Amino acid sequence: MHSNPALRAARTPGLRPRSGGGPMAAADEDAVMAGHLLDESAKGVFIIAATPFAENGTLDLKSLERLIGFYIDAGVHGITLLGVMGEAPKLTYDEARLVIRATLQQVAGEVPVVVGVSSPGLATLAALTGDAMSAGAAAVMVAPPAGLATDEQTEGYVHQLCQAIGADVPLVLQDYPQATGVHLSVAVINRLIDDLPQIRILKHEDCPGLGKLSRLRASALRDRRRRIAILIGNGALYYPLELARGADGAMTGFAYPELLVEVYDRFRAGREDDAHDLYDAYLPLIRYEQQPGIGLAIRKEILHRRGILASPTLRPPGARLDAADHAELDRLLARLERRVAAGL
Fold this sequence. Notes:
Layout: H1 5-8, H2 22-30, E1 33-34, E2 37-38, E3 44-48, H3 61-73, E4 78-81, H4 93-107, E5 113-116, H5 122-135, E6 139-142, H6 151-165, E7 171-175, H7 177-180, H8 186-195, E8 199-204, H9 210-222, E9 229-232, H10 239-244, E10 249-250, H11 257-268, H12 272-289, H13 295-305, H14 323-341
Parallel strand pairs: 3-4, 3-10, 4-5, 5-6, 6-7, 7-8, 8-9, 9-10
Antiparallel strand pairs: 1-2
Helix pairs in contact: 3-4, 4-5, 5-6, 11-12, 12-14
């Protein structure tokens, strides 16, 4: 276990502790629900949870419990399970159910939990949706599968998806063409919003995507369209700029979730320059963690160093950090500590 003093504290240096009722108060204010279900008013930071594994590749439920507690203590407004960076495709169906049920039992309604249920087959997707919703999930997240080449095919799939999971299940529609190869235009997204009221949140990860975000918000105002929540992803690489363009928060991962929460809070309080200043201090680490292919290994290593994960293991196939990677990470963390010590 590394002993960098910037990592020992539960709170990240430079970030103020939350006050005034803790994470449940934040959830009540910033993640509006109908009953326990998310609606279009959802906002804040929905952290994408890592999935902990022991060194032998088995699920590590003790680390999962620590991780979920860590996220809640960081002040997140919601948690998202079984996303791309949660290694969902590497889990068996029974393991996915176990992660869902363990997390929802631990959270016990304190913050809303979204469950990624993407699958090539609608039957499997619908079954996992049923398991998640019966366990207390607030919504499910789905990305259109690879192979949808036209707008007509994409729209047809989303309509079939909604029919398969049931009209009463809130849907987070993930727009992530870098991973899926499926491009959702502003016009397609708007038609889906008009046609399918259960689409409550767009997880916006198209890149470059700032202009697309502005067009979505402008067209909703122009056409008096139902305004859905937009939460950004891409490891928060463009987070402050996306908040300024009309995003309602983030649904992404980072080894310092409290940074994401504090940037959101500063923006919401009208302190945009302060939000950028804080974000900029962490940007080298955010960028380093977003390296394709190895980024999740870096995130898990930092969570391991922070004492949250017993092991930084990725289930095969997965990247491993070498000595040069560890040395670079050491330097980045030391640099971050110096910047924070100088004041933000």
